[in-house]
Structure formats: structure tokens, C-alpha cells
Amino acid sequence: MLRIVMITIAVTCTLFPFLVNAAAGWSGRAEVTGIYTLNESTALIKLSTFSNPNSCQINSSGDVRINPSVDKNWMSMFLAAYISGKPVDVYVSAACTGVWTGTSYATVGHVRLL
Fold first, then answer.
1. CA dihedral over 14, 65, 100, 55, signed as positive or negative
2. Distances in whole angstroms, Cα of residue 84 to Cα of each of 29, 35, 38, 39, 78
3. Predicted pLDDT of residue 24
4. DSSP state, residue 33
5. How many domains, in total, are found in the chain?
6. Strand positions, DSSP E, the chain
7. What pLDDT score does 14 carry?
8. Which residue, among 40, 47, 59, has the nearest Cα to 108 in the 3D structure?
9. Is residue 12 part of a domain?
10. Residue 28, burial from CB neighbour count under 10 angstroms (0-12, 13-18, 19+)
11. d(C-alpha 22, C-alpha 33), whole Å
12. In what order do the strands lie in the sheet with 25-26?
């Protein structure tokens, strides 16, 4: 029993710093520089600047991930911003979503067209 308790404490102490570091927050004012649609349920949005508050494993394909089938209003806003050159501010939740091995992208919570 003591061994199980010690293992539980060790695992908790190891994982807790990673959970605490996950943070939600605004991306900051940025232009949409690219939209990469993988399929009907995954699109990656590339921003000119991105603070990456969750330290997601982003790459040149994008910074944030949305589901265009569900998040139609956000997809429309990103397209409008891309076409018009207007900046956006994206609020990301405290989560990263994987797409390919070794990558993860910020999960969108809100989008403001500025």
C-alpha cells in the first residue's frame, strides 16, 4: 500500500508542473498569413505573430487549429481577415491539439476581428 501511495505522489509531482504551465490567453494582434485546410474537420491558421501561451509544438503549417465544420463563424472570420488584411486577436484555451506526430496546435476559444 505504501508503495502505491509513493508512486501516486511521484507521478503527481512529475505531472503537476506541466499542468500548471498550460495557460489560456490571447494571441495578441496579428494578421492571418495562411490557412491550411487538411480536411472537413481540421484547418490550421498561421498568424504573423503568435505568443503560444501553451507552448504547443507548432510549425510553419499553422499556430492554431479549428474544426471548419463546427466552427463556421471562426472560419469565416479568419477568411475575411486573410482577404482584407485586417488583424485578429485569438483567445486560445489551455490545451494543444495534435495533428501529426510531433506537432500540436493551440485550441481556439474566441476570435476577434480588429
1. negative
2. 15, 14, 23, 24, 10
3. 87
4. E
5. 1
6. 25-26, 32-39, 42-47, 64-66, 88-97, 105-113
7. 46
8. 47
9. no
10. middle
11. 25
12. 25-26, 88-97, 105-113, 64-66, 42-47, 32-39
- What does pTM read for this prediction? 0.78
Residue in the block written with cell 472537413? 40
What is the three-class DSSP state of 38? strand
Answer whether residue 53 is part of any domain: yes
Within-domain flag for 64:
yes
List the CATH number of the domain containing 89.
Answer: 2.40.50.110
How long a stretch of residues is the chain? 114
pLDDT one-digit tens code per residue, 70-108: 999 999 999 999 999 999 999 999 899 999 999 999 999
Strands 64-66 and 88-97: unpaired
* 23-68 pLDDT, tens digit each: 788 988 999 999 999 999 999 999 999 988 889 999 999 999 999 9
Domain, as residue range, for 74: 23-113
Q: Is residue 7 part of a domain?
A: no
R_g over Cα of the chain = 17
